[in-house]
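Build the 3D complex.
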Amino acid sequence: MENLIALLVAAPLLGAAVLLCGGRRLDRIGHWLGTLLAAASFVVGAVLFVDMLGKGAEERALHQKLFSWIPVEGFQADIAFQLDQLSMTFVLLITGVGTLIHIYSIGYMEHDERRRRFFGYLNLFLAAMLLLVIADNYLLLYVGWEGVGLASYLLIGFWQHKPSAATAAKKAFLVNRVGDMGLSIAIMLMFTTFGTFAFGPVLGATGETSEGMLTAIGLMLLLAACGKSAQVPLQSWLGDAMEGPTPVSALIHAATMVTAGVYLIVRSGAIFNAAPDAQLAVVIVGAVTLLFGAIVGCAKDDIKKALAGSTMSQIGYMVLAAGLGPIGYAFAIMHLVTHGFFKAGLFLGAGSVMHGMNDEVDMRKYGGLRRYMPITFVTFGLGYLAIIGFPGLSGFWSKDKIIEAAFAYDDGIRGWIFGGVALLGAGITAFYMTRVMIMTFFGEKRWQPAPDPDKDASVEPGIEVTPGEMPHPHESPRSMTIPMIVLAFGSVFAGAFFSIGDRFANWLAPVTQFEHPHPVISVPAITTATMVVLLAGALIAYLMYGHRPVPVTAPRGSLLTRAARRDLLQDDFNHVVLVRGGEHLTRSLVYVDHSLVDGVVNGTAASFGGLSGRLRKLQNGYARSYAVSMFGGTAILIAATLLMRAV
Amino acid sequence: MSATAVHSLWTTAAEVEPLGKIPTPHIEYAQLAPVLIVVGAAVLGILVEAFVPRRARYYTQLFLTTVALAAAFAAVVGLAAGGYGTTEKQIAAMGAIAVDGPALFLQGTILLASLVSVFTFAERRLDPAAHGNRIDSFAAEAAAVPGSEHEKAAVKAGFTTTEVFPLVLFAITGMLVFPAANDLLTLFIALEVFSLPLYLLCAVARRKRLMSQEAAVKYFLLGAFSSAFLLFGIALVYGYAGSVSYARIADVVEGSVRTIDPALADTMGNDALLLIGGALILMGLLFKVGAVPFHMWTPDVYQGAPTPVTGFMAAATKVAAFGALLRLLYVALPGLAWDWQPVMWAIAIVTMLGGAIVAITQTDIKRLLAYSSIAHAGFILAGVIATTPEGISSVLFYLLAYSFVTIGAFAVVTLVRDAGGEATHLSKWAGLGRRSPLVAAVFAVFLLAFAGIPLTSGFAGKFAVFKAAAEGGAGALVVVGVISSAIAAFFYIRVIVLMFFSEPKPEGPTVAVPSPLTMTTIGVGVAVTLVLGLAPQYFLDLASQAGVFVR
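Done.
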């Protein structure tokens, strides 16, 4: 059975290779081929899952070694896979949501002439992401890590003719490099400390390692996670990444890739468990990000960017939970999975809305769409209820557990602080999601005539738009609505299915351990408080956006609103501190390079050239001169030999 | 009066006993088979010149030469397989010839290199036929005065100098003996046997005949000059050791021989004779390898000689001469290592730097390759100086790698032609990569190998030599070697840049389409370069097994 593991990666990898190398003759069937191979990977995952369920909890982990990758004395790395409960969870999420989004993309990208290439990139992403989660060592994980980064870059910049998309892709790539550097340093530290990269030996040897080293490794892993999962301070790329096609936003920048950081932290749990300082850093990053993302999400008028802020915030919850140790790992992953369902559903819904609205993304120009797009409205609405944590739906189960666990951080002030932040975040979530919901589907129609694509570069290509034409909102084709419906089912039922009887936590327990949290205040009190905060957030949003007409042009807003619209000045900070500083550094280095280094290099070259020209004159063509040279040489040879003896 | 009676009128019978019969020397024919096959074929080749009709000579000679070289190589392989390179190594022919690992390895290298370079000798498709006769690189009649009516008549008659084949076989004979010579006299005779045919071969270029003859005369004069030094050195060392045998010299140097030849009572054991004589012999060998300051013949001769001869000479002479140098230093004079090492250090350094620096300003591709060969001689010297088993094996490997790169590179030079024959001025090579990408790419491979870029044989060889030198305690030498390599990389890469990144000239040269002969030469050159670069380990092991001298 373990021989099937490689197929998980091989199927989408084959798809990527065939689609990207196959050329135009595959244009007609490329999307079907890509979808088929994604589905094949899902089927393999499902077969392995069924097989895994048939075994005892401790025997479920499978291993497969393909071949020895870098066989050097003292430096051994294998292409080897490990499929345990944690990996299996990710495999099913990635291939399942991935397949749905492939299907959705068939309709969404129908008019794009580069659709084959798009599916090739999607398959490449699936292969890399699966490699990331089934690798059995950090080095191979790093390959997948870089692979998803590459796929993300290619897909964000898929409409590369738009300068904004090209810039966003570059930004995502560069910011991720910072995080990747953290991962590579962590791997180097691991190698020097443990002499290996494999999960088993590394994570099994944390007991014999100094806490300082483990803290260093943990902080570097956290840096990596911050980059990939858009956590403060490396979160700035995620909002811009929404320049990519919407299915990409749903798959990569909501459901799967951005959660890789959470996977990394949970996978490395043994390291963090032994390094409380690193754990505290993880919790702080998660708490800060969950507020940061939520605040940004409140101010954005672009539906995708509002959802991106929400993604950042929800991943903040997961990171927070992952930092709590064994009481939080299972909930982090559970929230990750439920979030995968409802956030992918919300993004697909947003894509469906844009599809019907001439690719307009500004929610101030929506309004009253519920009657025109009923399926989108219902599925989006269910996703909305799930994310805000409406009782009984998926988000309620997973988020509530995280809030409880956060209150259980310790018995003192920290438990109150982290618990309070998580609670506050739930309220803000309810506010901004209600705002999105109302502005899009309720209220007055605020539709605007289509912009002229020649003048406005932000128009997504592929869809025929007549400038000045009013939008005719319509329900999307079935290839798009069916994935939305499937995801809506997940949004509704997954949480309850996972939570009742701690089913999910017990499933993961052999990998991540599991302890019941003991919050500083009682669990019913927390649940009640969550409900109160949630209702308050939703009510305020209703009063602000449902009760009053929404202006088509955004009002100036308060200082906080304006800052939040600019991503809480993240880009300005980066620009002033990093870009300017970097430019100064570069300029001074270039100066040194030109004046000093080039001077030395060119001077050396010139002096050798001059020497060569002079020595060349000795070669004058006369045999007599040559003979003199030989004679002199011999004389020196003899003299030197004799001298050597004399000395 | 009988004759005896007349004779007794002015002679008296000697008091001493009359000389007994000179014992027949014991010759191990089987072990000497490679040399004997080649020299036999050379003699046959002379007979072919005398008795075979002119029309059939070319094919007969080519066939004879190829078969002889292949058979001699097979004999070498047979001897190696019979263990003569390792366990069965011995001294044959009454102490004159060593049959051991280095000898067999180098003989094999010389024979293979000769085989592929003989193909370029036989190439007759590069120039258009003159008067209905195919022409090769050699003068129609070497004895004709350049530009004379006589010469024109010879060209018109379709004469060819097929004597080059026996000549090259004689040269190869000498080269085979040279690295195997186990006494100083055999060394000298081998030197002359391979040098004299080379002087002649240099003089018989079909085009630029005056330049070719000038090169030959210079080579001959300077070669004779250096031979005189060498011979004088041999005399002095004989005076010191009372013997020309390497083993005996080594014993005397080490002081393990106490018996003194009464005729040499005044000189034996006189260190001044040894040091001066040793230095003179070294000088003779360094002349052949082209080390600074005995290198000055190299550029002129390489440029003037017919290009196939240049390729052959640059590869095979270097292999033979370094073989002889290794044997002399490792077998005869190891006890003197403290004396010769510092001097050889200095020579290696000036050779590496000198070759690389002067090459920078060269404008003729053949001269450029000549200076490159000087720099390479310096690199090989670095391995020679190591005086370790790794030193021997690294030099053996380097010579194998270098000879095929060199022959291939000169073979490519024969292809680039304009109205005046080969277009050797570098300016004419501009943009070659645009017109003939394949030829330019092949030449680029050779240049990269010369420069020692990884994945080519040049890198593996250079790495082996430098490693051996560093382990032998010559770290500073390695530093100089790497610096020289960097300087040398400049002019190799400059040629690549010139070929691929310059605009072709409108009146530029054309690339001739060669016959399968030259294609084989170039193909083998590329193949060996890449194989030794990608998978050098087998050959390094082979060289390492072969790296033990018999004494």
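The mean pLDDT of chain A is 89.
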